Amino acid sequence: MVWGAVSYNGKILLKFVEQGVKINAKHYQNEVLTSTLIPNISTLCSDNQWIFQQDSAPAHKTKSTQQWLVENCPDFISSKEWPPSSPDLNPLDFSIRGTLEAIVNAKPHRSLESLKRMLIREWNRLQMDIVRAAIDTWRRRLALVVKHKERRFE
């Protein structure tokens, strides 16, 4: 598994989760949020004005993770506010991941390390106009999710 974060101002370096590691709330809070997000968020939002958005993965929805977000983020979209199956609302899911996958999977990889190197290289090359375009469609996509009563759409 790999974790990434984007904003209109930039991208945080990718965080890889070692093969076989169970992503529970404690691991997510310690290894992703505390060790990756918090030390790097100022590179994206120097004024500490940001809203954290995540999907509804089990580790993201736990009471302890929701409390961690209350204590450590200026604002966030809580698990109660987030539709249960919502890849249509996450720019990393509906746009950026597909762009990266098309490039990274164009050729087979002989090892996991080769795949990781290619992901890092292409993440770093990913142009901010692509990231911004994905973010700019969020409000329109939100309206479509409401219109379709939280069902998936294409």
From TrEMBL:
Domain of life: Eukaryota
GO molecular function, one term: nucleic acid binding
Annotated protein name in UniProt: Transposase
